[in-house]
């Protein structure tokens, strides 16, 4: 019985030691659980903050998308107007090219007429010189004829 008491005392001590260890582990687990709970609460707060930032960025992105869509619409309208102006400009350029061709033809014709006119001017100048010479001769002949007529006796 003494041996049984010793064995029971030893078992009780081991149970007490194991209970103490278990209580220590339980206390550690409780603290870790509390710390984990605090960490989880901090993570939840951080997630809420990130979610608020995400929502704000999403709203800003939606606003930018709306503005960009408006700008895209305006750009498309301007592109349509510019395309119309380009078409009109191309038509006007074609007409100007046609007019330039006609004007170049007229310029060539005018240059030819100027060349002919210059030739006629040279010829007219030569004829004017000859006419001046003939006028000078005529004036001398007229003067000579007047002198001859002045010497002739008058008929009565």
List the helices and strands and how they pair.
Blueprint lengths: L1 H150 L5
Can you walk through the features of this model?
There is one protein chain. By secondary structure, this protein is mainly alpha-helical. Helices cover 96% and strands 0% of the residues. The protein has one helix and no strands. The longest helix has 150 residues, at 2-151. The radius of gyration is 63 Å and the shape is rod-shaped. The model has no long low-confidence stretch (mean pLDDT 94).
Low-confidence stretches: none
Form type: rod-shaped
- The string of secondary-structure elements, in order, is H
Strand content: under 5%
Distance between the termini: 216 Å
| Percent of residues in helices | over 70%
The helix count comes to 1
Broad structural category? mainly alpha
**What about the largest sheet?**
none
Radius of gyration: 63 Å
Number of strands: 0
The chain-level mean pLDDT equals: 94
Labels describing this entry:
156 residues; mainly alpha
Short description, anyone?
Helix content is 96%, strand content 0%.
């Amino acid at each position: 019985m003494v041996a049984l008491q010793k064995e029971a005392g030893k078992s009780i001590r081991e149970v007490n030691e194991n209970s103490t260890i278990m209580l220590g582990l339980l206390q550690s687990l409780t603290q870790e659980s509390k710390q984990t709970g605090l960490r989880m609460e901090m993570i939840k707060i951080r997630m809420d903050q990130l979610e608020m930032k995400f929502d704000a960025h999403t709203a800003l992105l939606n606003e930018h998308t709306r503005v960009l869509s408006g700008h895209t619409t305006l750009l498309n309208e301007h592109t349509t107007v510019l395309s119309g102006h380009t078409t009109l400009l191309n038509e006007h350029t074609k007409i100007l090219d046609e007019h330039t061709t006609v004007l170049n033809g007229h310029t060539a014709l005018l240059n030819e007429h100027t060349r002919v006119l210059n030739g006629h001017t040279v010829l007219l100048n030569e004829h004017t010189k000859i006419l001046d010479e003939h006028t000078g001769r005529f004036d001398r002949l007229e003067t000579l004829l007047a002198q001859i007529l002045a010497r002739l006796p008058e008929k009565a």
